[in-house]
Recover the amino acids of this structure.
């Protein structure tokens, strides 16, 4: 074995189990996002769909800048149309009424730049099983989100991941403007929209064995 830049000959896999608290210090509460128009989390042909340190190292400085501006996480986009990618280290979900007037839950597709996730898959399978609205994996951009917000078609936005499970979003900064993201219109004090809250409860009930599930 020699030290150099080449394919590894061997590796050690460590599995650490430990109790933990909420991923965010604020707990299960809606967060604010800063849409980064300069930096890109991943690029086609890269390693955006792999759990690698390279996907996280480059995000540290933009995250610090977002926090300085008063936002909790970075909304990652790509291209001139600002196609949505991920939010912080989470998969992104948008619940809205699309341009065709359909109620839809949409998440960016696994095109090689998006990290596949068990929680992402769980959200998709769970909501498709409800059969209450359209569930899509397709491209969507920030300009569409801004237009939907202006037209009152935006219903909810949330992130989903292993550590946070589900994290609602309350506002997004894009091109000098803050766009408010609805939470629960029936409860002004709520920190989650009805779909995000329902998904969170359903997943936690399964994880804790409070309800029977084929996943546990």
């Amino acid at each position: 074995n020699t030290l150099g830049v080449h394919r590894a000959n061997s590796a050690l896999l460590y599995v650490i189990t430990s109790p933990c608290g909420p991923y965010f210090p604020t707990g299960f509460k809606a967060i604010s996002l800063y849409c980064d128009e300069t930096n890109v989390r991943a690029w086609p042909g890269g390693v955006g769909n792999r759990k690698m340190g390279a996907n996280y190292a480059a995000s540290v400085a933009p995250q610090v800048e977002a926090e300085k501006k008063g936002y909790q996480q970075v909304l990652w986009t790509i291209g001139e149309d600002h196609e949505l990618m991920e939010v912080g280290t989470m998969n992104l979900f948008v619940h809205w009424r699309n341009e065709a007037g359909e109620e839809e839950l949409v998440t960016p597709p696994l095109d090689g730049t998006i990290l596949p996730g068990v929680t992402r898959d769980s959200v998709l399978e769970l909501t498709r099983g409800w059969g209450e609205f359209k569930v899509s994996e397709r491209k969507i951009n920030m300009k569409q989100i801004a237009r939907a917000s202006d037209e009152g078609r935006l219903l909810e936005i949330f992130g989903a991941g292993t550590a946070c499970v589900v994290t609602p979003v309350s506002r997004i900064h894009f091109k000098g403007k803050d766009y408010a993201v609805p939470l629960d219109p029936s409860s002004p004090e709520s920190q989650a929209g009805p779909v995000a809250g329902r998904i969170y409860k359903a997943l936690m009930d399964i994880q804790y064995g409070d309800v029977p599930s084929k996943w546990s």
User: Anything to note?
Assistant: The first strand starts at residue 31 and ends at 35. The chain has five helices and nine strands. Residues 194-207 form the longest helix (14 residues).
